[in-house]
Amino acid sequence: ARVGVLISGRGSNMAALLYASRLPDCPYDIVLVASNDPEAAGLTLATAEGVPTFAHAHKGMKRVEFDALIDEQLRAADVEFVALAGYMRLLSPEFIDKWAGRIVNIHPSLLPRYKGLDTHARALDAGDRAVGCSVHVVTAELDDGPVLRQIEVAVLPGDTAETLAARVLIAEHQLYPRALADYVMRDSTPEAKLARVREIAL
Ligand code: GRF
């Protein structure tokens, strides 16, 4: 499957997706990395790794206009699935409609807990003993679509939001490639294929 990754910054999850895609049994390829910030560090990495990039500052553009620009790039690259990886912009309902069921996101909490920002600080404030990360399907509501997979991470004595974020990030890098691979493959499992054959036969 052809995957486009949207980033706004460091791009470590994009790198995890990209390197996993180089394993021979990985069912997806990263064919485009796009950003709303031309300075995003992840773009440099993608370029060095030979992945085509697109960057355009969103400033001064209407959300729907900017998303149309991204949509155009994704289509030009024949992208089939979109993976958000630290993409710090809300997507317009128009964009989400066009890509319905084909956008996934990684979020640094055990959803449905702590949607939005500052997840680790909020978990620590709440006295949580475990935190984690989730990959979910993107719908119009922020961090709200069906959860595909999660990894739980223990809170250690003395953890701060920063130490926790660093440890959860290790889990994110394990989780995202697996969850994306499963997601793009969901239509090609023997069961799914059989169900389609039955549908045609009926
Ligand atoms: C990750 O923690 C991700 O879960 C969150 O933003 C961070 C992005 O990091 N949405 P990176 O750009 O992938 O390194």
Automatic annotation (TrEMBL):
**What family name appears in the similarity comment?**
Belongs to the GART family.
List the catalytic activities from the record: N(1)-(5-phospho-beta-D-ribosyl)glycinamide + (6R)-10-formyltetrahydrofolate = N(2)-formyl-N(1)-(5-phospho-beta-D-ribosyl)glycinamide + (6S)-5,6,7,8-tetrahydrofolate + H(+)
GO MF terms held by the record: phosphoribosylglycinamide formyltransferase activity
Ribonucleoprotein as a keyword of this entry, yes or no, is: no
Binding-site list for N(1)-(5-phospho-beta-D-ribosyl)glycinamide? G11, S12, N13
Positions of the catalytic residues = H107
Included stretch of the parent chain: 4 to 205 of 313
What's the protein called, per UniProt? Phosphoribosylglycinamide formyltransferase
Sequence ranges assigned to domain Formyl transferase N-terminal in this UniProt record: 2-180
Carries keyword Endoplasmic reticulum?
A: no
Enzyme's top EC category = transferase
Its pathway, per UniProt, is:
Purine metabolism; IMP biosynthesis via de novo pathway; N(2)-formyl-N(1)-(5-phospho-D-ribosyl)glycinamide from N(1)-(5-phospho-D-ribosyl)glycinamide (10-formyl THF route): step 1/1
Alphabetized, the UniProt keywords read:
Purine biosynthesis, Transferase
- Marked site, Raises pKa of active site His, at D143
Q: Name one GO cellular component term.
A: cytosol
EC number(s) recorded for this UniProt protein: 2.1.2.2
* Underlying gene: purN
Give the protein's function: Catalyzes the transfer of a formyl group from 10-formyltetrahydrofolate to 5-phospho-ribosyl-glycinamide (GAR), producing 5-phospho-ribosyl-N-formylglycinamide (FGAR) and tetrahydrofolate.
Which species is this UniProt entry from?
A: Sphingomonas changbaiensis NBRC 104936
UniProt: (6R)-10-formyltetrahydrofolate binding residues: R63, M88, R89, L90, L91, N105
